[in-house]
Amino acid sequence: MENLHQNQQTNSHGQSEPSISDKPGYRFTFIEKSTEQIPRRKCVYIKEELVDIIGRLAAVKPGHKITIGAYISTVLEHHLEFHREDIECYYKENMPNTLL
């Protein structure tokens, strides 16, 4: 974790590799999308330590204007889409209509 903000890391073979912060996948999927406004909101309760972690993540780049709610929404949207088939299968076991 200490090399998170460095541009390059050295692997076990002494070769330079892009750091986590250079990988566009996570940053685009979760950080960039977490700056979008949420038009309609609902209150949910989550563990305090999770709020603290997300708050620290949001503070890394203040210009991105990441909110805790937007980050959680982005992560949940990704989770629901990634696990869509499993979730629908689980839901259909007990309910006749599709969930998603």
TrEMBL record:
Polar residues composition bias: residue spans: 1-19
InterPro entries: DUF3408 (IPR021823)
Residues covered by region (Disordered): 1-25
Protein name per Swiss-Prot or TrEMBL: DUF3408 domain-containing protein
Organism in which the protein naturally occurs: uncultured Dysgonomonas sp
